[in-house]
Amino acid sequence: MSLWRLIGIALLIVGCGLVYFGWQATEALDEQARELVTGQYSDETTWQLIGGAAAAVVGLLLTLFGGKTR
Hints:
Blueprint lengths: L2 H24 L2 H10 L4 H23 L5
């Protein structure tokens, strides 16, 4: 297994974890109250969701295409 595939798997796991914890944060009472008043989530929750999704996509792409040889 190539190094790029291992990095891709690690990024995929970390990205899914960040999305999971970001999603859990959106369900918290204080986060729901903030979203009700301001119409948006806190910066930390937003960055967890965005960063997790980006890391998961990059990890998936590296896992699928990162180990090809010429």
